[in-house]
Amino acid sequence: MSMSPRIAAHLNKVGVNFDLVSHAHSRNSMQSARMAKLPPSQIAKAVILHDGDRYRMCVIPANHRLILERVNAHMHGNYRLATEREVAMLFDDCEIGAVPALGQVYGMPVSWEVEFNHANDVYLESGDHEHLIHLQHGAFMELMNGQDHLHMSCPQDDRFGSIVH
């Protein structure tokens, strides 16, 4: 598989321009950036949250960590990280750990990190561990149109300890 069938259908339906970038097998978004020789700040990592009733996808740069408290404060919620089992159930046409950052395709609201406002290019996991979807800035913004955006992440740094998830 090179791309989730649902993602491929959605991108074709919306009509945005994209390319597929092949890379050596990776286990996570940071490795995908390394294997594809791309800046990790341009790789959109999907983090799935659950509050007991609803799921939400947060889209952050691969080299960032989600600040769960900011999401909960902004959403007036009590979100936690979804389990690997929940993620596998929700994204059944994707390999575990290669979830495309387009939750709306799966009926899930999306919150995206405002830092992507400044990215000329954005790369999404495609649903497998060997391809990325390359979008130019305008195409990414078109796909994120109507989705919530906020500052909810920070660069990975052990100094932040438990406040960063």
UniProtKB/TrEMBL annotation:
<protein>
    <submittedName>
        <fullName>Ala-tRNA(Pro) deacylase</fullName>
        <ecNumber>3.1.1.-</ecNumber>
    </submittedName>
</protein>
<keyword id="KW-0378">Hydrolase</keyword>
<feature type="domain" description="YbaK/aminoacyl-tRNA synthetase-associated">
    <location>
        <begin position="26"/>
        <end position="136"/>
    </location>
</feature>
<dbReference type="Pfam" id="PF04073">
    <property type="entry name" value="tRNA_edit"/>
</dbReference>
<dbReference type="InterPro" id="IPR036754">
    <property type="entry name" value="YbaK/aa-tRNA-synt-asso_dom_sf"/>
</dbReference>
<dbReference type="InterPro" id="IPR007214">
    <property type="entry name" value="YbaK/aa-tRNA-synth-assoc-dom"/>
</dbReference>
<dbReference type="GO" id="GO:0002161">
    <property type="term" value="F:aminoacyl-tRNA deacylase activity"/>
</dbReference>
